[in-house]
């Protein structure tokens, strides 16, 4: 494999697995490695990643550490929430939506450094490998992709640790033993899957969760909050304008404190098998409820129903890794157009796991009290309903007459 | 209008409004009136309706009082839940799903009594008139439909009360004043709308709710429950087999006690305006979560996603009153076919408004631990993923190459 | 009805029916009438309409005669063809697509003249009344709409002729007798329906057709033609750049001469019944084939399939009169975005009713000879297909294992 | 590879390519080979395949030659036509629909012979490998699949011929040179692709076609034909009841003689690239027009539009090889349910490439002359249309008022 690539950009977390990959790439390809470490709000220090990379012989100019939190929320999370995307009815796509940004930034670094390859640390059974690689190929069709987990023979924990020791890669104590599950985190969510969670009949342990208290431990008194939207995006909380990442951070705090956003599900992976995942998405779980509420006031029925019918497809595209596909972009164009009128304020009650809409208002509201009132009115002629019903019924009457 | 109809079957609740309608029909059409009162689990005594009807001169053989609870849940609620139907992402269609059954039974009584007309008490601004009448026409195309609210001049509370007094229709004290909202109830839900709720920015008062305690007043300790499904239908709770209506009754008790199932929304009516509705659906809110969970284990991905994509359309059909339409039946055929494998058990945690899935198991499970495990395995070749990704990426690579 | 409206804008063809309407409006409402006559390419002189209007007492400044052909093709026909719209699989929507433009222009004239009402000559059983009036209401919600055919008692030919004679409205000889069918025409098509065509088992008479020779009478030698597209729109024929209306005119000539574009169908009207229609759409029948062919080369698969799945909905919206609806505009936004790359040239063979694609080329082509060739190649690794197939098969294998 | 499989069932045409595969399998795996040759109406003698197989050492009991024509049309072609399936708007899926049957029969032979593997002769770039293999895996999840074209090093014509000569496999003269294109044939269609057709700007040569005369050479006089349908399936032609395969054979003759059914297109393969294909589907091209026509009379609008919206998805599933998928079966269940009423007779005019509907009638017709007539009528109240339009317009009026 030596000579196959000359410079590879690795998505590098600084953790044990991607450090092993870093060394393995150096060994196998005898090539220059560029490390890319992103702050997507996963809640970890990034400077240790720099130190580790330096220790492993990466040149300073080949170490990229970027704070992508604002871009992540503004250009990926928010567009997705404009679509009310839920995969299989419940999953908020917290992992899926981060991958396209990482792929995009890796390809930008490829361009900046003159690299010819990219590498990632996703395994060969999951969705993430697909999401990364579809992104790479869509953005740079001639890129060389290296997925070590599909190539090497280090397919067990023991072999990995042996490799690390042999190559003097530091192993923190908690990595010695088998982790009871694996996680992925960013500003939108944290996921847990595998090992201890593999039996879908077994409830997760309480001490696994890191981003939310349990509903039981949440305050006994509800928190009320108002979220303001402009053109489909949340822009302020309780009157305070906030940048996208700051706003989501604040919603995470509010949700986490009130026991909001835990989810336990069995999902269908793109690669063909089912898996069990547990997620915490405190802020996102508030946001989707609020967004639907402001839409309920400001979207025309035709717009809303069209969005609802396309949503499962849109969510599937993101889950499967097709963020950069022409059809995802096409649907997004439509969603964004429709979102132009989605502005106003939603009032929510947060209480021990519940997110309840208790009010919504908007200058663009299509709700008209005078049309809906039970009182006599002058704007709506009730007798119109007869013709409306009769013509809607006509085809069914004809079918019954003909078919019996 | 006299002579226009000779015998009319009225959907008669025994309440003030439909009693006024009863008298008005007698007056206007000088016709025989057949009253039909159904127990759909609304939680009211039906015998008073019989007495009232007799008092108003209805012949005993023209008084129909039916307990339709089992039919309601078995043939209407359960088929709808097999589809995971949610209108506009959130509404469980509690009112919508009862109307087709009432229409069906009214038409059966038309056939039994030789009547030539039906009447209902729905107003001219709402969805229910449509749902009733589409049902009537679909089942008996030549039926004469009378919708008094669209015909008479009793369009205000004062006029109604005057009419009642003039015709010696008893008015219970609480009906004297304006009700602060109107309600509709059955075994699946109770709705509140109008008047005090017409401002969508104002939170409903706590004392309005009748089927559930607030999350705040629910027990501080979670209730765990296991629901067993066969072919898409819930059939047992905690090991006890229950008939459809008994099962939903039990879920209502469980949900209501744990603060589950309240919903406050702005919805798009079929007749064209938005309205604000508040709903309590304690059992249904548990059931839909449980049903999705057992599907997550037993449905193939292709089946599940197809159902998800058709669901908004299906829910819209029911909301708009097209239960008896050929296309609703066609979609149902598909859903029922797919539901053949949806059997197994779901374990839920109910706690202060939250319904959380904590386990699911099934003899028909498509979840395979050996395929999903992080460990080395012999059933799935990780290298297959490379080809999978490359061919999925190919069209996007070609697009990028051609379009830049 | 006198006093109900003060000035009404009538869609006026100059023919007998709309002349009767004109007089009837003057009689009934004692109001000022503004006539609007449009050249949409229907192939009739418009000046006689002016003379007739003057004769009937319309003030010169109240007579609007507009050549809308370019706007019609550019802003209505072409956007619809970008969507490949076919109603019920076959109908090119020639009548449907003209109505929104007429409604738009009528409302513009309402604004210009300070009128408070509009009137049209569509009957109460058809789709056109819906298309006109949905347009009026969508563009000017407070407009007063007058649909004489639904209001008056002139519901038979005899009564109409009596009215005309009584009011000295000139009746051309060919209007004396019953027309054997009714027609609607514009630059895109001509339709025939009713009377002699009402039995769907009976073939139309050859001499009814006006825009095309029969395939039998078309030349024995094929005509080859090249159509050039830019961003989804046809812009040139055989190298000659043409404006939208000129281009469609030329395609009509080519199609008509070669026996192309006749269609005989039974369709489902929005108002609930089926009707039989016969259409001639010579140019449009060429255009849709050519457009699909250039798309086949330039659209990504994801884009093309998304368009195909939304097309029936889009066509239904136009057929039903919802051109001006928010959801039609939303879908259009998506279609137009996707059409940015739909440029190139299509070569067609026109022969006795057949439109056959015989070549297509494009600078934006996504077709790559090197990828598709049977020969050995270096760009596509055939072994990738194994993994692709295996992962696509996985869920079906698991389903078979679990279900037997 | 020796020892990897013990008995393999090969889809064997008797032609050069699959004869080479036969020998290669014997060489490589040293295993027993079972040959399976099907008559799907491709128009070739099958007995030569038996002789060749015997010559190559296949045991008589390992040679399966089956006439599958009736099963093919009844259980595959007809169900697909009930859906009006067209891939990418135009392609009748003639190749796609044969693959699932071949896969099914191969797996049956696997079961009958105790084989442990299957092999096919499809290349690594096309759709057919996917269609075969998805079928194998869906029907027998543990089957071993051998796709020689993806495995061997005989990737050019020269190498193949060398191998054949070396192994004394007879090469017919016309196979010596390069074929100008490749073909696939069955009772539904014949396809041509590759080589001479690879430039999509170049028109196919006339002498390539084998199943139809050109429109130019077709009779100068039209042929009229009546097709009778029962429950969505064609059952008789001109009054003569015919079995499925006999009926399609007759339609092929009618279509071929009248220059019907040629198609030249660029399509999107499932494996990711575009390819150019030319097809002849004479009978199928008649059948789809006739089927839509009988549906136009007998399907309710809701049914018809639901089918139209799902059709692109259904066609894509078949094109991509997912015939045996749970979701294709689910959609089929719905289509078959809806087809219960699709019975009646369609009259067609066939003339030089044109298939024109000129009449349709049915006992189940939903077309009602009395509802559609222009004359005054008593069944439809034209004033109902006003209410119908007003309520349909309401949301658009509200949107315009709020948004301006």
TrEMBL record, chains A, B, C, D:
GO biological process, one term: L-arginine biosynthetic process
Arginosuccinate synthase C-terminal domain segment(s): 181-398
Residues engaged in binding ATP: 11-19, 38, 121
Catalysed reactions listed for this entry: L-citrulline + L-aspartate + ATP = 2-(N(omega)-L-arginino)succinate + AMP + diphosphate + H(+)
Record CDD domains: ASS (cd01999)
Pfam families tied to this protein: Arginosuc_syn_C, Arginosuc_synth
Subcellular location: Cytoplasm
MF term (GO), any: ATP binding
Enzyme class: ligase
Pathway: Amino-acid biosynthesis; L-arginine biosynthesis; L-arginine from L-ornithine and carbamoyl phosphate: step 2/3
Annotated InterPro entries: Arginosuc_syn_C, Arginosuc_syn_N, Arginosuc_synth, Arginosuc_synth_CS, Arginosuc_synth_type_1_subfam, AS_cat/multimer_dom_body, Rossmann-like_a/b/a_fold
One Gene Ontology cellular component annotation held by this UniProt entry: cytoplasm
Domain Arginosuccinate synthase-like N-terminal per the UniProt entry, residue ranges: 7-170
Main location: cytoplasm
Keyword GTP-binding: no
Keyword set, alphabetical order: Amino-acid biosynthesis, Arginine biosynthesis, ATP-binding, Cytoplasm, Ligase, Nucleotide-binding
Binding site for L-aspartate: 123, 127-128
E.C. no: 6.3.4.5
NCBIfam families per record: argG, PRK00509.1
Protein family: Belongs to the argininosuccinate synthase family. Type 1 subfamily.
Record HAMAP family: Arg_succ_synth_type1
Oligomeric and partner information: Homotetramer.
Protein name (Swiss-Prot/TrEMBL): Argininosuccinate synthase
Organism field: Telmatospirillum siberiense
Classification lineage: Bacteria, Pseudomonadati, Pseudomonadota, Alphaproteobacteria, Rhodospirillales
């Amino acid at each position: 494999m030596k000579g196959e690539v000359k410079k590879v950009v690795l998505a590098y977390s600084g953790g044990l697995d991607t450090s092993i990959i870093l060394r393995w790439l150096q060994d196998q390809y005898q090539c220059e490695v560029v490390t890319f470490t992103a702050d997507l709000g996963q809640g970890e220090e990034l400077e240790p990643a720099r130190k580790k990379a330096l220790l492993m012989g990466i040149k300073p100019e080949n170490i990229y550490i970027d704070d992508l939190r604002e871009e992540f929320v503004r250009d990926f999370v928010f567009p997705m929430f404009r679509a009310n995307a839920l995969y299989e009815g419940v999953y908020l796509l917290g992992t899926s939506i981060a991958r396209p940004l990482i792929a995009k930034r890796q390809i930008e670094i490829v361009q900046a450094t003159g690299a010819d390859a990219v590498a990632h640390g996703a395994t060969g059974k999951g969705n993430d490998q697909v999401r990364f690689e579809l992104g790479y190929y869509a953005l740079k069709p001639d890129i060389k992709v290296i997925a070590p987990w599909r190539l090497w023979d280090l397919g067990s924990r023991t072999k990995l640790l042996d490799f690390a020791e042999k190559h003097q890669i530091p192993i923190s104590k908690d990595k010695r033993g088998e982790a009871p599950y694996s996680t992925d985190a960013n500003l939108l969510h944290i996921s847990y899957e595998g090992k201890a969670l593999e039996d879908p009949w077994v409830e997760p342990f309480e001490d696994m969760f890191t981003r939310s208290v349990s509903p039981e431990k949440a305050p006994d008194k509800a928190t009320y909050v108002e979220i303001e939207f402009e053109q489909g995006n949340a822009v302020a909380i309780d009157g305070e304008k906030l940048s996208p990442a700051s706003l989501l951070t604040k919603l995470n705090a509010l949700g986490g404190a009130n026991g909001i956003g835990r989810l336990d599900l069995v999902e269908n992976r793109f690669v063909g098998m089912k898996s069990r995942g547990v997620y915490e998405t405190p802020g996102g779980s508030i946001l989707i409820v609020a967004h639907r509420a402001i839409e309920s006031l400001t979207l025309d029925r035709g717009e809303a129903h069209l969005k609802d019918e396309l949503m499962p497809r849109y969510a599937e595209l993101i889950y499967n890794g097709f963020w950069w596909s022409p059809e995802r972009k096409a649907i997004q164009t439509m969603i964004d157009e429709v979102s132009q009128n989605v502005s106003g304020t939603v009032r929510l009650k947060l209480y021990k796991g519940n997110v309840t809409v208790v009010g919504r208002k908007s200058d663009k509201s299509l709700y008209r009290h005078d049309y809906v009132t039970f009182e006599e009115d002058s704007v709506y002629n009730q007798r119109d309903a007869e013709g409306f019903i009769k013509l809607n019924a006509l085809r069914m009457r004809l079918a019954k007459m003909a078919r019996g």
